[in-house]
Amino acid sequence: MIHLKVTNLHKRFGGNHVLKGVNFEVNGPELIGLIGPNGAGKTTLTNILDGAIKPTSGTVYLAEQRIDQLQPYEVALAGLGRTFQVTRSFRRMTVLENLYVPALAMGGKLGSKALIEKAMSVLEFLTIDHLRNEFAQALSGGQQKLLELGRLLMLEPDVIILDEPFAGVHPRLMEVIYAYIQRVNGEGKAIIIISHQMDSIFSLSQRLLVLNFGDLIADGPPDEVKNDPAVIEAYLGSDEEDAA
Amino acid sequence: MKKQIPNIAGGLVLILLLIFPLIYRQADYDYIMHVMITAFFYAILAASWSMLAGYAGQFSFGHMGFMAIGAYTTALVCHYFYLSPEPTGLCSEMPFFGQWLVVVNPIGVTSTTLTQDCLRQAMEAWGGSVKVTPMPVLLGIVLGISFGALAGFLIGMLVLRLRAAYLALFTLGFSEILKATISAEIEVTRGQAGLELPPLYPDGVSFFGMHFSATDKIPPYYSMLGLLILCLLILGWLAHSKFGLFVRALREDQDAAAALGVNTTRYKVLVFTITCAMAAAAGAVQGHYVQIITPNMLFLLQMSLVVAMAVIGGIENFVAAAIGAIVLQVMLELLRNSFEIGGVEVDMTIWRLVFFGVLLMVTLRFFRNGLIAPIIAYFGREGVAAETVSKRAVASGEEGRS
């Protein structure tokens, strides 16, 4: 049973209080949207969840294991995987080699039939199997996003954080990403999507988390969050601000 | 078939190198053999640096420092440690498996070295009745490799958080500190006067009924070539294993690799340890071959030479880096011959360096992965583009029908 528990998470960078006591839980294979204006703390929260930075205070537990003090690779092996806002494929490695890295880190055997078959099935699903022996730098931006998603399929984490998966992607590739999210979620994985594309977020998510200036101002079903006055104010500004 | 061309060519070159000392019969035999042994030495350094910088992205400029650690370790072991059946009563000594391990006192650089060190004084007093045994050269080399690996491990731990220019400057600093320390500790290292080492095979070598003396070129030729082949085999095995994949991921994006479960700390330290051990091995063997080492081996120019050799060969392929080193070392020597054009003498001892510099600049500007690596890649990646196009066409056809 997937259980991610974030408790009273604070992060300060000098005088900048980026996260101000964030609390939420993920129970089971939920499909969650994480939204918020620029500077809300979404990327900081993601970086703390994946171990890249340590919180000033607060805890993160994944299936009873405290992960907020672990190294990123330990967090990945514990079952939390992520993509990056700006695609970070291994550019001078082939597409297949990109997929082998997480699989081998999880204990796979290089050159084994099982590993090759798994990588090929991932590439076929992502419609980039014809590029398997090309270097990642030869791929388009959208294809590189698919490659990043493919690496997560090889890592097989329980919780997946997708940072801006739809940014700069052709509508046809977006369909592939939609299918990916639904397939992975259907396989029992929890997914947290960070995006500024509201249409996609509202249509995909079962639950929305809204951050604003480091505060979690809303947590609930999309329809409910959409009409939340605090969320409307965060995105559109208050009448007083408009008057000013 | 095309994919096998580099392997076939490599096999032929290897055979040629193996039989070269037996078929070359010119008057400059010893000189050419010396050039080849030195070329193999640089090839080990360039290939191991290629794994460190080209594969793992760790641009260390301290590689010659680790080479020097290997050379000085074996030199110090062979210079200061002896086994004696009797205690000298003059030196620092301790019982050692039924004998005495004697540590000779450091006396620095003096005109009367032979009569001042404690062991020589004891031997004079014994009048030849006690036979003192120096440490085996092989032990010195093994210790040199071990200390090189240990230093690589420690430096690897220290530079975990350093990247790019910071890493380069840190390792350069390490190398300079080492050079200054060796130069300053004249008492122990004899500073710029240099530390003498016994030959690689002090008693010569006999095989197939032939005896080669301690100064013969054939034993060190095959020793250095053997070490190069061993290093290339280890590097090849590493490059085609999980290790190779992980260190390349480290080079491409350390954070992304960590986010995918790669223990970046472990692999960064491992690649430093392994490649520094190889550099130390090359230094130790070369030290016994040339029989004298000085801190000048740590000059920045020496490190630049190794970097240039690897860059011109191709730093993302350790075989290309090794070939680059051999070709350049041989060319730099062959280009020493000055000649005249229209009565004007062209002094090639200087102009060859200009040629070398221009070649380096052209390579950096137009051939970012060197001159040899792209040739190997051309054959190795044969058919990849055609495969992509044909698979794409099949996929498009299927989409069109559906």
Description:
The complex is a heterodimer of chains A (about 240) and B (about 400). With about 240 residues, chain A is an alpha/beta fold. Chain A contains ten helices and ten strands. In chain A, about 40% of the residues lie in helices and about 25% in strands. Chain A has a six-stranded mixed beta sheet, with helices on both faces. A four-stranded antiparallel beta sheet of chain A has the order 2-1-4-5, with helices on one face. In chain A, helix 6 links the parallel strand 7 (about 160-165) and strand 8. The mean pLDDT of chain A is about 90. By secondary structure, chain B is α+β, with helices and mostly antiparallel strands. Chain B is globular and about 95 Å long. Chain B has helices spanning about 5-25, 30-55, 65-80, 115, 120-125, 135-160, 165-185, 185-190, 220-240, 240-250, 255-260, 265-290, 300-315, 320-335, 350-365, 375-380, 385-400, and strands at about 80-85, 90-95, 100-105, 135, 195, 205, 210, 290-295, 340, 345. A four-stranded antiparallel beta sheet of chain B has the order 2-3-1-4. A two-stranded antiparallel sheet of chain B has the order 5-8. Chain B is about 65% helix and about 10% strand. The interface of A and B includes residues 91 and 106 of A.
